[in-house]
Structures are given as C-alpha cells and as structure tokens.
Amino acid sequence: MSVADSTTQPRPARGPGSVAPSAPPAPSLAPHEAETLEQTWRDPPGIIGWFAAVNHKTISLRFMVTTFLFFIAGGLLALAIRLQLARPDGKLAGPDLYNQLFTMHGSTMMFLFAVPVMQAVATYLVPLMIGARSVAFPRMNAFAYWIFTLGGLMLFIAFFMGIGPDAGWFAYVPLSGPQYSPGKRVDFWAQMITFTELSAIMEAIVLITTIFKMRAPGMTLNRMPLFVWTMLAASFMVLFAMPAVMLGSTALITDRLVGTHFYNPGEGGDALLWQHLFWFFGHPEVYLIFIPPLGFMSSIIATFSRRPIVGYSAMVLALIGTAFFAFGLWVHHMFATNLPELGKTFFTAASLMIAIPTALQIFCWIATLWSGRISFKTPLLFVLAFFVILLAGGLTGLMLASVSLDTQLHDSFFVVAHLHYVLMGGAVFPLFGAFYYWFPKFTGRLLSERLGKWQFWLFFIGFNVAFFPMHVLGLQGMPRRIYTYPEEMGWGSLNMVATAGAFMIGASVLLFIVNVARSRRHGAPAGPNPWGAGTLEWSVASPPPAGNFEMVPIVYGRYPLWEKPRLPSHVAGLINEHREVLITSVADAELDHRLWLPASSYWPFLSALAVTALFVGSIFTPWAVVWAAVPVAIGTTMWFWPKRSTSDMRVASEQHPELFK
Amino acid sequence: MSMHGRPFATRMPQPVRRPARLVSLVPLVLILAPAAAAAAPLQDALRAYGVQAEHIGRLWNFTLGLCALVFALVLAAFVCALWSARRGDAHTEPDISSLARPERGIYRIIAWAVGISTVGLLALLGADVVTSRALARMPLQDAVNIELIGHQWWWEARYKDADPARQFTTANELHIPVGRPVVVTLRSNDVIHTLWLPNLHGKRDMIPGRTSTLTFRADQPGTYRGQCAEFCGLEHAMMALLVVAEPDAQYQAWAARQRQPAPEPATSRTRRGREVFLGKSCAMCHAIGGTTANAVFGPDLTHLAGRGTIASGMLPNNRGHLGGWISDPQTLKPGVSMPANLMPQEDLHALLDYLETLK
What we know:
heterodimer, A: mainly alpha, two-stranded antiparallel sheet, 21 helices, B: alpha+beta, Immunoglobulin-like, five-stranded mixed sheet, three-stranded mixed sheet
C-alpha cells in the first residue's frame, strides 16, 4: 500500500488505505470523474471493437449466451434420442445417426455447457462479489471465451456435415482408436476436448488469481461469499482434473494420427489406461459441475431466508473436503473391469465418504431455512428442487458406489437416471434459480415471476416424469446406448412416459426463453438490490457500470449490505484514466499494490483464430502443428506488445500525478 | 425390426418354482405392474434365478430400504422447515445476529444428523463387503468352464475341458446345467464388450488384452437373455446372448451333440447345399465341423440349426430369416461384417436345406 500512497500524494485524503472523508453508505464519484471511469473501462465501439472487448461482464454475458445455445442444442439432441426410444423397434434414426446423437448430447452437455457455464457466470459475479473492477488477466479471459466458442462450433460443424463423433462422450478405446473408428469423427471429438479444456484451465487461472489477489480490502478469506469459495474450490479442481483428460485425449489423437500405441494392447499399450485417465478427470468433473451451484444455493437461500447461512466454516470445509475426495472416487466407474476386488472396496468406501460433506451442507441449508424468514420467489423455488432431486440422485449414487450393486446397475438406464438426477438436480435447477436471481443484475430488469413459476413446475414435474422411469428400465435390464429394443422386452410403456416428460422439459425451457425475451425489454425495473440481498454485487447499479465500483469498497463482514456501515467505507486514489486495480494479500486482503490491467485488444481473438487453425489443421496433418505455430506465435507476441501511449501515460502518472485529477 | 416375432416365447421353459422375486421397490410396483405382466424374455435384475443374483438382490433390498428411509427423513425435515419457518420478503430486516454469536443449538442438531448419516454409510459399506465376500465364496467344484469371446457384434463360446477332444465351440447361445457352477472366462477380440445376464449375475467387462472371469449358477431352469452392456459400436443394441439353463442330463446330451461333427448330408439336395457353402464365400469366415470349412472369423455353424436365434439374438432361427440374412445381412443389421451373398435361388434353397440339417 505504501507503493500506492507515494504516487498519489496530491490527493492525500484519498490515497489507498486512507480514510474517506465522507460517511457511507453510497460512496460515489463526481459525475465527470464517473464518466472518465466509465470511458476507461468501456469496450470500444463498432465491429472491430466487438472483437476487441475484454471487459469481464461483456465476455461473461457472451459466454453465458453461448453456453446456453449449446444447452439448447444438446436439449434438441436429447429430444431426438427420446423420440427414437419412445417406441420399441423405433425407426426414426438408424444406429449411425443414433450413436452420433447420444455422443453429441453427452459431449455438448458436459463439455460445452455444464463446466463452462459455471465459469461464465463466475467471471461476471466474482469480481462484483469481491469488490474488484475486473477479473485478473482480462485478455486471457477473452481468449478463453473465443477458443471455447470456436471449439464448440467445430464440433457442431462436423456433426452437421454428417461426421459427428459416435463413440460416446467418454470414447472408450479401442472403440475410439484408429482401428475401430476410422475417419475423422473421433478426431473432432478429441480436439474439442483440447479446446474446451484449454479454455477451462485458463478460466480457472483467471478465477483463482482474481479471488486470491483482487479482493477488496478487508475481505479476508473468511469473509468471502460462499459462492466465491465454491468457485475457488472448483477452479483448483479444474487445474488438477483437466490435465488428466488432456493427456488422455492427446495420447488418443497421437494414436490415431501418428501411430503411437498408448492404448493398443497388441503393442504393449493398455485399453484400461484410457479409463483411468478419463475418469480421473471425469469423476471430479461431476463435482466441479456440482460445486459452483452449491454457491448459488448459499447465495439464494441466505437472501430469501433473510439470514446468513448456518455454519459458514463448516460449509467451507465441506466444500474443500468434497473437492479433495472427488479425486479418490474414479474407479467406481470401472467396477465391471477386472481390477482387484479389494482395491474396488477402497473406492466404495471413498465414494460413500464423499456423501458426508454433502449431507452436512444440506443440513446447514435446512437449518437456515428453518430459522429464517422465507420468501418463496422463483429463484428460491428452483433452488429448493435441489433438496428433492439431488437428494434422490445422491442416494442412487450410494447404490452405484457399492461394487456388487454396481455390477447390476452399471451401464444400464439406471445410471442414465442417476446422472441426470445429480446433474440436473445439482446443477441445472440451481443454475436456473441463479439466472432468475441475478438476471436483474445483468440487465436491470426482473424476470416475470408468473412465467417463472410456470416454468419451474413444468420443469420439476417434467423432469421426474422423464427420468424416474429410467431407474426402473435399468433394473428391468435395459442397457444404455442402445438405438432400439424389441417389443417383447416390455420396455415400451415406460420409455413412452420418459419421452413425454422430456417434452415437458422442452416446453419449460421454451417458457424460459420467452420470459427472458419479454423481460429484457418490458420487465419491471430492478434497481440495484431488488431482493434485499447482503453481498457486494447488489451495492452497484443494475446493470453495473463498466468499472463495477465507482469507489472500491472496504469490507467488514460477510454480508456487507446487511451489516452496519463502518468507516472508512471505501478506498480512494485509484486513477480513473487507466484500468488501474488494487492488489491485496491472499489471506487477509491487506493492501498490497496497484496494477494496470491491459486495455481492449483484438489480439486475443486473432490468437484464438490461429490456435483454432492449428488444432483443426492437426486433425488432418501433423504438419499443421508446425506451420500454424507461426501465426500463433505472431498473435501471442502482438498480444503482449506494449503501446507507446500506455507507457507514456504510466510514466506521466508517476512523475506528474497531479495531471490525473 | 418388427419382423423379429418372438424368438424367446416358444423356447422358454417356465421356472419350476416362483423365483426369489425382489419386491421391495414398493413405490414402483404400480408403475411396474403392466410391464412385469408382459415380460416374456428374462432379462431383469429384479428377478434372481441364481445364487449370485440373489446375493446382489438382497443387498439391493437393504440399500433401497435404507436410502428410502433417509430420503423420507431428510424430505420430512425439509418440508417441516418450509412449513414452520416464518414468512418474509425483500424488505424484511435481515437477522444477522448469528454472525455475532454462534448458534450452538443448531450446530448440535446438525452434528447429530451428520453422525447418524455416517453410521448409515458405514452400514452400507459393511453390507457391500459382506455381499462381495458371499459372491466370491460360491463353491466351484464340478464347474462348467466356458471361454466367452466378444466380437463386433456376436459372442463366441468355447466349452473347455481337460480332454481336448471334449472341447467344442458354439456361438450366441450357451447351455448350462442347473445347479452346477459356471466359470466364464471373458476375452474380447476387438473392442470392449460387457457380459450382463441380469437374472444370474452382475456385469463383467470383456477387455481386449485382458482376461477376467465371472462365476455364476442358475438355480432354475429357463432361458435367460443377456445383452452387451458396454457400448461397442454401430450394432451395440443388437448383441444379445441366450443362456439356456436345463437339467444336467439334458445339458450333457446337448454337450455330447455339440462335440459331434456336422452330420453327413443324406440327400443330393443337401449335398448340393454343402457344395454351395464350401464353394462360395461362406467357408472363408465360418466353420462347420466335419467339413473343410474351419475359418474362425464368424460364428461356428456346426450346429446352427440347434440354436434358437441368428445374428446374435436378433432374429428367430427359421428358414425365412436365415435366407434373408444370407442374402442381405447389411439391410437387417447395417455394419455387420458379413457381406451380401448373391446366388441363384436354387443354390440358396439347397444351402438352406443343408444348414437346416445342422442340428
């Protein structure tokens, strides 16, 4: 903080760490200063400006819309699957199309929706919740968005050209290997993994750095909102889980492309190696989809119960415990293999143990609701569905954790039911709740409550109609991933019920789209804090100004807007003419130094195009890695090229701080 | 696929006594009722016809009961919480007193709830370990040894014996003696497949480059259907296996028949049929014992006519289906390795006549 102080001596009263002269609650700048700040942080206008945007809110909104479009696409694929299975001996899709349909559905929902949508929401909310003006590494944040979008587009272009991947979303070798999946289909799948995992790792780095180093002064680790804790835990999980699948998919690509033999048992490779690598990522992936929604839960339940969440420390420890144990469960996806039986029992124990922290969190939320003053708004309804659906999914998970039971349930429709109960109950329901909750912050208008309640009940009932019968189908012997089944198996009626439920879900999502489209223009104006919530994102206007906070707040508790205002209320002394942010210490958020974040730039976009050319080209020839490295090198070099005007301004701000009044 | 008819109905001996039916799926019974009534082929994890499936069934009952109880309790607490909590709205003054003083009473209740949950989880772990031990301890004296090899998309079965002369090979249909243990050694020839006979035991993967075993016993006579459970490519859905459990004497008679070479054709027409088989591309992939055809690429056809289905449980084994299959397998099961075989009608009928003698 001393660094900061020395450069801002002309305005001693507002140097970082000094006390603001006026009293809280609403610190604001003079209008012309606010305008300068807005100009500084705003994205440039025009088409080129659109591609040069790096403001975290702009990128995040695009990211959310993109992942939502992939969610719609994945949902339409699911409806096609359900139509094919609705009746025995279905003839709508042949095996070739059907295998593409379920592979694309699974891959889209897992890689292009569930993981990235949580990061997308977080890059919007985390800076606002921790009192920061931006995420760390804003250009990398933009690059991560572009690379994700281009990778997802590549997958769907392949699908629409009739060469979509068809080996399932976990693409077991040797089926996905060069001998049994000739052509380029699986290569598109494996490269899509590379794209999305690269994006996910970058977003995790952005989020961890933002959370550790950019919290407003006073926001010690134990004052962080629980949502921020969940994103911290999930981001660390990404860092440990994603490299395993990138390694696995890269080995698969080299097996397919240049004749390595990682997975070829005939040449000393091993087919099970893929399963270990994939599930070492794949199981934690479920939890890194499921952990951020725990943060949505905590935010929404606290607001609509009008009290803090019971057991903050227990909640945080439960999150960390879940994130840690999630890496010790992967073998329960492999109980039908010939791994040693005693070893499998260890993984049964670990899989059961991870239920403890989840149970603890559920109990804490129930206690919060019990002792609070509840207001049944739509966001809360969606979140409450968690207690029914995720609970059921968690309990069927305990069944799958048992080695003996799993041998009957594994790879049957029971598993399909289980994973949808966990992922829809644990992630999609809270996510919709989160959209209803934060939509006013994103747009300044409230979503319609009436449509919202219709959507909720249609979704909740449709979901159970669609997926509950699948438990029974699995027990009746229906394996997953079959494109049809003979009539005498007796599975027809329950499949028909499931299909009807799937269309109810479809109708409910349609209602959501209508609600968003209408409320964006005609919704009730929200104001800064329509729900009377307690965390910092609700202290700024809706939608927030480009620089988030006119003045960086100082934090004294976990729910700053609920607690009694204290002095000093904010930090001053950051210049408005450049994207200057405050860097604070990891544990206690003490003032550390100031940092100039980079301005808008189209190089992240151009670099993403170059990397895309490299990745897609390498599907067809290994030489693409060599030749496309040239534009990638140019792009990523220009990305960091200093601008003379910025350097001059930096020097001037140090030598003549009085100019920056 | 609607032409399949009912390949199983005619071949299904009814179980002698009622199976150990596992009916603790109480809330599901209503939904299940119509489906269970129509069930013709036995492919159902809830109906155990062998000791291993019974062990797993008992574990299922216990786990389902405990989980249902937990579900009910947590949901009751949740509903009570919503019911009894006071109402508020966005203007209700938030109660932040808990930030200043810890809520020890609530913590104590939560600690108890977590403790009870942990005990429940330990009970599940114990039950799982007990079941695993029971499964591993099935006595294996006098076992039938079968090597089952997965292919895209059919099953090759080699019945092992210490005496090589007593070994034989068949495909897509196993016969086993009731009450005697069966040790199946699982291999794969191409991709990963999974053997799943839900009425007899849980699944076991067939992984190329690895060998695993599955031991089970059928305690009731009957025909049990299994289906590949690991996605194995285009026709994964059309890879079924029938297991016929029959009294030991019947099984011995069947095995003795299987050890015989194919009968010598008795008429000129069936002799012509054999010539077609040996002269066309059939013999390049298939074997018929007692002839010069001994390729191992496709299913062994020595006793084809004795099997209930063709194309891995896909079609009933009758003259019409067999003729259609030989002429144009790609329409019936796209992607299968067998090519279309165009031949004059006379040759086809002679071939079918011959194949029908391969009892």
